[in-house]
Amino acid sequence: MGFLPIHRIITLIFCAASLLPSCASDSRLVPNKPLTVGSTLISDDGTFALGFFSPSNSSRNHYYVGIWYNSIPKDNVVWVANRATPITDPSSATLALTDRSNLVLSNTDGQLLWMANLSSSENVTGGEATLDNTGNFVLRTSEGAILWQSFDYPTDTLLPGMNLRLTHNRHELQWLISWKGPQDPSPGSFSFGADPYQFLQRVALNGSRPYWRSPGAPQL
Known about the structure:
This protein has 220 residues and is mainly beta. The protein folds into two domains: 24-152, Agglutinin, subunit A (Orthogonal Prism), CATH 2.90.10.10; 164-220, no CATH class. 6% of the residues lie in helices and 35% in strands. The protein contains one helix and 16 strands. Strands 1-10-11-12 form a four-stranded antiparallel beta sheet, with no helix packed on it. A four-stranded antiparallel beta sheet has the order 2-7-8-9, with no helix packed on it. A four-stranded antiparallel beta sheet has the order 3-4-5-6, with no helix packed on it. The longest helix has 13 residues, at 6-18. It is globular, with a radius of gyration of 21 Å.
């Protein structure tokens, strides 16, 4: 059996490496390495991206942290962190994982724009936040316990694998809330979720007024 020339070996190694999925670090946010405008996290399979975005055709210079389909060119944002507090100076904004394992969006002036609502009040160190292949942004401890996940705080999109909580003894009900407009992700007029007054009934609201109700529910 003959030996391959060195240039063929190098070529084979390069081709094999190109077939591997993206490095795990591309999908993770770790302490002391904040995310800034122009940088993104990419899920390991390349389906989703997380980073800073400005709505297309928007006349305002507002930026948001969001999750979008990485390969769809437009109308692809599925989750927004700071819906009600847009970033007006993108050069100063960072999304960081603190030493106590909390996600914080702030600017260089120290203004807090958004923070994750952790499920545990205990101070945890050594965690990391990962953008999963499902589009779920998950903050975990070093042992793998989930402290927070974006699937628990949906915006206007229900992704495959996401469960919209209709009833729960300890947690608040979850709602999908429309964008205010095509270029404005702030909370809009329409919402969809569980009717708090009718057990396991789904309802769409226009403001506080019922707009649609799932079949079988009594009409107001």
